[in-house]
Design a protein that fits this description.
Two copies of one chain form a homodimer.
Chain A (H helix, E strand, L loop, with lengths): L1 E12 L2 E13 L4 E5 L6 H8 L7 E6 L2 E2 L5 H11 E4 L11 H11 L4 H14 L15 H13 L5 E5 L7 H18 L2 E5 L3 H4 L4 E6 L2 E7 L4
The structure holds adenosine-5'-triphosphate (2 copies) and magnesium ion (2 copies).
């Protein structure tokens, strides 16, 4: 489904190069369920942005459905993303002056879904994360965990085939965190959605079928979870 | 040190009132070490903002050092905050176009500390959270966990007598999270700094001497940790 082949990502800053990723190869299979763990600053979010086609590698190749996305221009890449990938950002990245409902409906606007239909689907997505009573609120009027759940709803509303979530339960208590994990796992199990999540929490990582450990811009290890 | 007496906080929004806090009384003693836990949206950040004098209660009284802060105007309140309280925000709230060093030095600017002195102290604070090599970077050039650590360094640089931290390890891996907790606990133990942290992680909460459980805008329980 998504394959990174020896990708690097460097940031140039006044003469110094920060090598966020130093040569990573990884395949996200259809129906995969993986957790990415590793120290702060080790390259996890950078890797997620490359897998999610939100960024381009400095060197190396990224293939989505077998296609080299390096050959696509920005608008073709945006369309591919919109059709197949749902992304939950570590910092949520919601539009501050827009209601929760309209934030969640945004991916459907790009797809040309009619207004009534997309508002209905956005309301359902918010309902699934227990925010049905907050559809008219703006992010600045919501708690950290509520904003995180709006970001999750937005990533799911377009029914993507790959869900990339960067620390999706970081601001959630156990009950809400479990509910979110339940949604993701059901999508994976029942609809074959590939789920990749970055997490700092060992018990969240333990639920995945494989754990990818990142350190210093490289993949240090990939562990397959034993059959339950 | 900081005392909330029957405080409430409501937000009015087009005819509807969201009662974030519905009558909370709580005292943060000198040298206290408390964890605030509770579901997403239950009022923890709202309570922290009131204790930190970043917000005013709708009803009820807030006393700092025995003084009713309701009698202070905004600039007197800002000065009190700057002198005695360090605050780590759930969403960090760093200045995006400012380097890590200058972000951390900001509380000292308000206090009138000379430029060379405050840059030295800011560099030391960043060093303490393992970001000494990043002083010239801006928040947009840093990982989530790095930004969180900059926010922590900024809260500590003014040597406050009360440290209020809203989910300070949410974006940190175990090693970095433990180091941050170590810094806070050392300040509490060796310098009598009162530490209050909001956390969703049970093992972080378990380190505190008392756990304050919030639910639905009210304090549900306060548990004193047994002597070790
Ligand atoms: N500016 C605002 N306007 C309207 N409602 C608000 C505003 N800020 C917060 N709220 C609401 O007040 C309630 C408490 O919010 P608060 O941020 O204190 O929760 P919290 O316990 O910190 O949650 P989390 O664990 O998700 O961070 C929530 O229902 C939230 O939506
Ligand atoms: N725009 C940028 N410019 C320069 N350096 C950057 C930029 N974005 C990220 N970095 C650096 O690249 C490295 C990897 O960052 P990344 O965000 O991928 O880490 P991470 O593993 O997600 O960390 P965390 O767990 O703290 O979120 C870090 O050292 C970070 O400071
Ligand atoms: Mg990250
Ligand atoms: Mg909060």
């Amino acid at each position: 489904e998504i394959e990174a082949v020896d990708v690097t990502r460097s940031y140039r800053m006044d003469g110094v190069s920060v090598d966020a990723l130093r040569g990573v190869s990884l395949t996200i299979e259809e129906g995969d369920y993986a957790a990415i763990i590793g120290p702060s600053g080790s390259g996890k979010s950078t890797l997620m942005h490359l897998l999610g086609c939100l960024d381009r590698p400095t060197t190396g190749t990224l293939l989505v459905g077998g296609r080299d996305v390096g050959t696509l221009d920005d608008s073709e890449l945006a369309e591919l993303r919109n059709q197949t990938i749902g992304f939950v950002f570590q910092s949520f990245q919601l539009l501050a002056r827009t209601t929760a409902l309209d934030n969640v409906a945004l991916p459907l606007v790009y797809r040309g879904v009619r207004r009534a239909e997309r508002r209905k689907r956005a309301a359902e997505a918010l309902d699934a994360v227990n925010l049905g009573h907050r559809v008219g609120h703006k992010p600045t009027q919501m708690s950290g965990g509520e904003q995180q759940r709006v970001a999750i709803a937005r990533a799911l509303v377009g029914e993507p085939s790959v869900l990339l979530a960067d620390e999706p339960t970081g601001n959630l208590d156990t009950v809400n965190g479990d509910e979110v994990m339940g949604i993701l796992e059901r999508l994976n199990k029942e609809r074959g959605v590939a789920v990749v999540l970055v997490t700092h929490e060992a018990d969240i990582a333990a639920r995945a079928r494989r754990i990818i450990r990142v350190r210093d811009g490289l993949i240090e290890a990939v562990a397959e979870a034993p059959e339950p």
